[in-house]
Amino acid sequence: MAELWAEILLYMPALLRGAVWTLALAACSAVGAVTVGLLVCGARMSGVTLLSAPARGFISLIRGTPLLLQIFYIYYGLPELGIVMPAFVAGVLALSLNFGAYLAELFRGGIQAVDRGQRQAALALGLSPLQSFALVVAPQAFRTILPALGNYATVLVKETSLVATISVLELMRSGELLASATFRVLLIYSLVALIYYTICTLIARLFVTAERRAAIPGSLAAEVMGGSKDAILSRSLSTRSEAPAKSA
To answer: 224-248 burial, b if ≥16 CB within 10 A, otherwise e?
Structure first.
């Protein structure tokens, strides 16, 4: 057992350095994906054919081809056109475009889920279209899409492992190099899996906390997220007790 712990302590520094690069990839790609998603969503919902048609084509193309192919296309294919970029930048660009296409549809669904009357009421109160979107529509859409955003965040962290194919020294690539050098494949890949699991679990808990804070106070969703079982039960009982009185 002591020898096993000694091996783990020996391998962990290299794996943790790879994990730092994984987090850097995920963070940069997340920023890029949100930016691409917002731009494509805006073009998709603009109603202008010159904008909406390319946006629909972009979404269809990205969703219809594998992410690994997109990484290879950017890193190995674009140099034939004179566009050369470092492996890290190519990986970030591919992840940003890929997840941006999915986020564009997610954002569109969240915005369309907000009742149109909310926007009309905001305009009737004298708010500009931009103010009504920022102050009325966007907060409600954000609450709607937040659980799905958490899922996409954890998937993004795991999909960064594909960038190992273009020799970015992130967590998966670090594990591959260690495994090929030491032949301790089972141990090293178990450590890699543990690190990925830890990162994804922390991100999932972060989004659960964000969902709890974003829930409207007093709503059933807020009580469920807050774990207030007594409040939910009392609300249910009071509703049942009031029903005969109302009917009477």
So the answer is: ebeeeeeeeeeeeeeeeeeeeeeee
**In whole angstroms, what is the distance from residue 179 CA to residue 193 CA?**
13
- Per the listing, tokens 């679990």 go with 201
Asked if residue 141 lies in contact with residue 38, where contact means CB atoms within 8 angstroms, the answer is no
Residue 168 per-residue DSSP state: -
Q: Do the beta carbons of residue 222 and residue 216 sit within 8 Å?
A: yes
Tokens of 188: 């090293």
Report the alpha-carbon distance of residue 116 to residue 238 in Å, rounded.
32
Four-point Cα dihedral 135, 137, 139, 145, nearest 10: -160
pLDDT computed for residue 232 by the predictor:
43
pTM for this prediction? 0.84
Render 43-65 in DSSP notation, one character per residue: HHTS--HHHHHHHHHHHHHHHTS
Q: What share of the chain is helix, strand, coil (3-state, %, to 5)?
A: 85, 0, 15
Q: What is the pLDDT of residues 134-147, one digit of tens each?
A: 888 988 999 999 99
Contact 49, 57 (CB under 8 A): no
- Cα(75)–Cα(66) distance, integer angstroms: 15
Residue 221 CA to residue 214 CA, distance in Å, equals: 10
The gap from C-alpha 245 to its chain's centroid, in whole angstroms, comes to 47
pLDDT in tens, 25-65: 999 999 999 999 999 999 999 989 999 999 999 999 999 99
- Closest by CA position to 71, among listed 205, 166, 159, 171: 166
